[in-house]
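Entry for the shared binder. Reason: the reviewer on the internal report wants the predicted structure included alongside the sequence.
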Amino acid sequence: MALHGPAPQTPPPGWRAPERGYAVCSLPRSGSNLLCDLMSHSGQAGSPAELLHDNAKTAAARPAAEWMAALAAAGTRHGGPFAIKLFPEHLARLELKHGIRFFDWFPNLQLILLRRRDLLAQAVSLAIARQTGSWVKSNPGHHGEARYDAGYIAGLLDRLVEWEAYWRRHIAVSGSATLELVYEDFEHDPPSGANAALAFLGLPPIPADTAGSDWLGRQGGSLNQEWCARFRADMQRGGYLLRDRPRRARPNPQTLLDWLRGRLTQPAFRLRRRD
């Protein structure tokens, strides 16, 4: 088993990252489609899209410099600043499979952290979307019927906690200029969320007559509320399985060597003679 991932692919001499740009640092089912659609309609902020999604043409692996150049071109094709929507899984795939650390290539981006306050409602929404295939209001889905599964929801809840922690760690270390938006604060007035993001970027607000994203809309309904209540009842009755407890670190060869070296330098173990 390999102990290391692929060799890091660092920007070559002469690499020019976009001078202006931003990334919507998001999590699934946080209102990112709604926010990014409104920002695109503003005509000032480019079009923040999932350029690293598995199905995106710009996600196809190729030499690092060529790949990142294609990404930079795609992120600016609508005019305005470079714009992209990112999920932690996008960045993990880039780094673990290809050795590309996205922010090494795009270091000067302003960040918009988009999250939800109610993580359980987010996990339930994600469970329903994954089972039905319905990710926006206009798409009724094609996968099948949603079936309640407390264990499945618990696993998604843990994953959301990990993904949000990933973004917070990155922001803490990078020191990048960051705006934090909470979905519940603008879900009933989507333009207010878009205008907050535009103001952060130094761009004018969306025109008053800009059409709302009716095709996106809110998808949560009685089923979501029913599952949230049922999950809370299940957890109170049966107890949470502590999937979110700290994970044991992966074995590190150097740690093992240090431990062995310490054991070999300790005084020999002696048996005590019984009287």
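Summary line for the report: Residues 128 and 223 are 9 Å apart (CA to CA).
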